[in-house]
Design goal:
Elements (H helix, E strand, L loop, with lengths): L3 E10 L2 E11 L4 E5 L6 H8 L7 E6 L2 E3 L3 H5 L2 E4 L11 H11 L4 H15 L14 H12 L6 E5 L7 H16 L3 E5 L3 H7 L2 E6 L2 E6 L1 H8 L3 E7 L2 H12 L2 E5 L2 E6 L2 H6 L7 E7 L2 H9 L6
Parallel strand pairs: 3-8, 3-9, 6-7, 7-8
Antiparallel strand pairs: 1-2, 1-4, 4-5, 9-10, 11-13, 11-14, 12-13
Helix pairs in contact: 3-4, 4-5, 8-11
Length: about 300
């Protein structure tokens, strides 16, 4: 039975429909990624699933309970990591965990019994008595993740868990999330990092303009939407080279600034045309999830 099942979800603010018939489901033990550009409707979808906003239409079942009717009962069994940290700056690391446990009606003795494991999980065992202001951004994010686990939830909502973190902090959080998956936890993840989605998610849903436009595993999405090889070419008169060779030898050619992207299964033939063009440089690589994302949602900047 899915831990989360959403059918034909809709939500408007004024004349703007921001969620337009979204349907998705989460099976136990999976990490499902929800991807999309800014304004695609991801955060509104999460808020609807959590019962923090009422849908205009559609059905939501969360842990077998109807939302928003039984949202409070369902949230007691969830873990939620919001996009922005909301740790209490007046409390220490340990006190933040202890107070948060009370929000779930959890006895202090139960919470105190869980805190050593959570501090070790977050790599903060030696910072239990530190004030929040003394923590780095990565430490705060790991503490927020540990806090989301205070009630030992089976389903965890993660809204952009590593945004703004340095590579070391990101990799540490990825390692912790993989540990949760290995323990049978279920995760719904939103992220703007395509490498994060490829590493963590068994299934992905790409969302744009309030709709889910494609769903599948990372490899399925790549093979479904993108040619197997990509040649990125940039340098002197790259547009002239593309007009001469790109359209003949590539299935699809895109211009982005001073770079030409050639999507093809015949990269060797394209590379051969570059041998006597010293003013041009290139990168030959396999197609990836970012290529899928840009093809489906466009390269234009969203405001």
């Amino acid at each position: 039975m899915p831990l989360l099942e959403v059918k034909d979800l809709r939500k408007s603010y004024g004349n703007l429909e921001v969620v337009r018939g979204v349907s998705l489901s989460l099976e136990p033990g999976e990490c499902h990624g929800l991807l999309g550009p800014n304004g695609a409707g991801k955060t509104t979808t999460l808020r609807l699933c959590l019962g923090l906003a009422d849908p205009d239409a559609g059905e939501i079942s969360l842990l077998g309970l109807p939302v928003p009717q039984a949202a409070r009962e369902a949230r007691i069994r969830l873990g939620v990591l919001p996009q922005l940290d909301n740790l209490d700056p007046d409390f220490t690391v340990l006190e933040n965990l202890l107070v948060y446990g009370r929000y779930f009606g959890q006895a202090d003795a139960v919470t105190r019994g869980r805190i050593p494991e959570l501090l070790e999980f977050a790599g903060l065992t030696n910072r239990a008595n530190s004030k929040i202001q003394t923590l780095s951004g990565g430490m705060k994010r790991r503490l927020s993740l540990a806090r989301a686990l205070i009630n030992d939830p089976d389903l965890i909502f993660l809204d952009e868990p590593t945004t703004g973190l340095d590579p070391q902090a990101r990799h540490l959080i990825w390692e912790r999330l993989k540990q949760l998956l290995n323990r049978g936890k279920t995760i719904l993840l939103t992220t703007h990092y395509m490498d994060e989605a490829e590493r963590l998610c068994g299934r992905l849903s790409i969302m744009d303009h309030g709709r889910i436009i494609s769903t599948g595993s990372p490899r399925e999405l790549i093979s479904r939407h993108i040619e197997p090889e990509v040649l990125e070419v940039y340098g002197e008169n790259v547009a002239g080279w593309a007009a001469e060779h790109g359209d003949k030898l590539a299935a699809r050619v895109e211009h982005a600034g001073e770079t030409v992207f050639c999507y093809t299964s015949r990269a060797e033939a394209l590379i051969a045309t570059l041998q006597n063009r010293p003013g041009l440089r290139y990168l030959h690589r396999p197609a990836n999830l970012e290529d899928v994302f840009l093809k489906l949602t466009g390269r234009d900047l969203r405001y």
